[in-house]
Amino acid sequence: MSLALPAPDMDRAITRISHEILERNSGSESITLLGIPTRGAHLAARIAAKIEAIEGKAVQCGTLDITLHRDDLRMRPPRALMPTTIPALGVENRSVILVDDVLFSGRTIRAALDALGEIGRPAAVQLAVLIDRGHRQLPIRADYVGKNLPTSLSQIIKVQFTELDGVDEVTLEEGNA
Amino acid sequence: MRHLLSIADLSATQAIQILDTAEELSRVSDGPMKKLPTLRGRTIVNLFAEDSTRTRISFEAAAKRLSADVINFSAKGSSVSKGESLKDTAQTLQAMGADAVIIRHSASGAAQRLADSQWMTGSVINAGDGTHEHPSQALLDAFTIRKNLVRGGNDLTGIRVAIVGDIIHSRVARSNVLLLTKLGAHVTLVAPPTLLPAGVESWPVTVAYDFDSVIADVDVVMMLRIQLERMSEMFFPNVREYSHYFGLNRDRLKMMRPNAIVMHPGPMNRGLEITADSADSARSVILQQVTNGVTVRMAILYLLLAGSQESGAQV
Question: DSSP labels for B238-271?
Fold first, then answer.
């Protein structure tokens, strides 16, 4: 197991992503952050807190559960549904920024785009991830990346947040393949 | 979980999982787009060998909102009325590739028989079997109670429920007694002795014969339909006397606790077990039960059908 991103670096990455989001969208007025549960939701809350600290005003932040739109539902036992909370201004004509912890095959994001389409028609959709580990199976890329981490398919990336796991860090483990 | 045959098979944890799933799905039903792609390509058969309005259309609506294909099959107008057996019917459905069969049957245990047999491989959902059980109704009732009366908890601890009326013929009462007590509620059955089943003293409930002595102490009054079609003998002297002692009317409504709710699984005999003004009063959540029925049944279908069958163990 190796430490890919220790706590201070993780915090810097989140700060940088927050600044990039503000720069690209000329402020926080038009944006809505939607985190994909579980850890994407925590990351979205972190980014929202940073943006609020920078801009001095609240930012729209919610969660988007994608379980019902997954394409691998039939391959696994049923999954519990997670909460979807859409902030007050909705997604209609907003710049929605999907937030997830790790970008891998891209299938989660495809499902998220479908789930988002059920809720409304955003003006634009962007993607922010903490780790991009490669191995895309779909034509999807992230707009904001905390760290690009080249991996082999057998390796396992573990993102941990203090709120859930008692520690902030990203580790890379050797799988058994 | 592969089949849903009876509440007796469910653990409290599994029941709460169904209610929590329904809670999330209800947000979808409230949204502008009511259709989800989750069960696309799955075929669900509604096999109704007994009359039903809301259960059948509720399951149909639930399946359609999850994009499953629904085939409706009722005994009337099918070969069942020509004397085709349950086995032949099931094998026919299997040959057509049904992923799940929702069965209502007048014989207690029909759903269990279908699930235990090798006649078909799909999931079996019991939508009411004789006077045995009606698990999806109990789940939607528990969901409705939780939504209206429980704040900051996921079970029904401390909730007091009176189930009033034709207990002996009621599969809804059996499933509700099992589920509500499993989730921590206290259940009182109120009925004349003739409408209570033999062996009721072994149920985890209190029994009362006097509705007025109970009504002021409960949070939920669940009225049951007098099932005249199942009554071949006299269970009470006449309808007026029954309504007087065991019906819900304006005077009894006034005796209820401030936040208490009125439930009825439907269809109602207005004027018999419940007066029209009680059924339409502000305390009545009878239409909410119908709405919640769709989301709870979506949750059941999701949990039984969305995952892989191989890894799902029967409960």
Answer: -HHHHHHHH-B-HHHHHHS-TT-EEE--S---BT
Predicted confidence (pLDDT) at residue B62 exceeds the cutoff of 70: yes
Q: Is B1 within a domain?
A: no
| Residue range A148-176: mean pLDDT, rounded | 93
Distance (Å) from the C-alpha of residue A71 to the closest C-alpha of chain B?
Answer: 9
Outline where B31-134 has alpha helix (H).
54-65, 86-95, 110-116
End-to-end CA, chain A: 15
Q: Which two tokens stand for residue A160?
A: 């941990």
For the cut 70, the answer to whether the pLDDT of residue A61 exceeds it is yes
Q: What is the ipTM of this complex?
A: 0.79
Same domain, B236 and B208: yes
User: Is B314 among the domain residues?
Assistant: no
What percent of chain B is modeled with pLDDT above 90? 74
State the number of CA atoms in the 13 A half-sphere of B77 facing the CB: 6
- Segment A126-140, tens digit of pLDDT: 999 999 999 999 999
Domains of chain A in sequence order = 2-73+82-173 (3.40.50.2020)
Choose from A79, A84, A118, A119 for mutation: most chain B CBs within 10 A: A118
Q: How far is CA A167 from CA A89, A103, B121, B122, in A?
A: 33, 21, 46, 45
Q: Is residue B83 very low, low, confident or very high in pLDDT (cuts 50, 70, 90)?
A: confident
Residue B77 has pLDDT above 90, yes or no: no
* Same-domain check for residues B201 and B252: yes
Q: What is the pTM for the complete model shown?
A: 0.89
Same domain, B170 and B213: yes
Residue B270 sits in a domain of what CATH number? Answer: 3.40.50.1370
CB contact under 8 Å between B38 and A69, yes or no, is yes
Cα nearest neighbour of A73 on chain B = B307
Task: Tell the residue number behind the tokens 């059980």, with chain if given.
Answer: B133
pLDDT at site A133: 96
Domain span including residue B89:
7-134+291-306
- Residue B312 in domain: no
Chain B residues bordering chain A (beta-carbon distance below 8 Å): 1, 17, 20-21, 24-25, 27-28, 31-33, 36-38, 302-304, 306-308, 311-312
**Residues B196-231: pLDDT tens digits?**
999 999 999 999 999 999 999 999 999 999 988 877
> Which residues of chain A are within 8 Å of residue B25 when distances are taken between CB atoms?
81
Cα–Cα separations (whole angstroms), residue A119 to A43, B62, B77, B214 = 22, 19, 41, 46
